[in-house]
Amino acid sequence: MGGDGVNQKVFLPGIIALAAVLAVGAIWLMERDSTSLPVYGELPEFSLPDSRGGNLTLKSLFGKVWVVNTIFTRCEDTCPLQITTLQAIEKEFKASEELWFLAISLDPKHDTPAVLASYARSRHINMSRWVLLTGEEKAVANLIGKGLRLPHALTGAKSGAAGALLGRLAGFLAPTPAYGHHPRHNSPRPGENPIVHSSRFVLLDRRARVRGYYRSAEEESLEKLRGDLRSLLGQ
After folding, report:
1. Letter string b/e over residues 69-99, b meaning 16 or more CB atoms within 10 A of that residue's CB
2. CA distances in angstroms from 144 to 54, 139, 141, 149, 210, listed in the order given
3. Nearest by Cα to 213 from 177, 166, 168, 179
4. Which whole number is the average pLDDT over 143-169?
5. Inter-residue contact 102 to 134 (CB < 8 Å)
6. Do the Cβ atoms of 106 and 157 come closer than 8 Å?
7. Cα(235)–Cα(233) distance, rounded to whole angstroms?
8. What does the pLDDT look like over 90-134, one tens digit per residue?
9. Alpha-carbon gap, residue 197 to 181, rounded angstroms
């Protein structure tokens, strides 16, 4: 019995010290991206189904650097280019395991997790570093509008003054957007908005804070994204 007491006295302080070191290390990991980049805001709490068959939450984002964009699988305008551009950036940073990519669908009624998974396969998206997100329309709109501060109009959302006001407010909060348009042959029903979304990329740090907006079709802006990524990743 005496020996057990001695062992506890010896090992317990060691365990406490180790826990303290790990806690400090975790804090350092979260804070080490304190760069000169501005902080535009933080994402709200959310839990949305993804292409992996699970749910992505705000806490799931912590500890990684994310490049986020908004798409929908029936998009024939900017979305394919956005995906291809991010795949090229992924290859450039293939050694950076902390860098992940998040694509949020603005057509959640159509883009179920199964549809997103099929889309990912058809686009040869690397699902070990990508997450494609869908979910209930209001929750998706809240994440994109209030969190990412990007102008948007989801299909199925009723048109009207409130929707128009939201779009204008989002336009003031974020840099002037470029828009992706709903394909003509797949027009929404009367009384519904077409899908309208920003083709900008959004950069999130390890605390899910918005740190930058980038034009997906402009090389100068993409070069700035690469530089900001190196800064957040500590390269």
Report:
1. bbbbbbbeebbeebbebbeebbeebeebebb
2. 20, 9, 5, 6, 12
3. 177
4. 64
5. no
6. no
7. 6
8. 999 999 999 999 999 999 999 999 999 999 999 999 999 999 999
9. 7
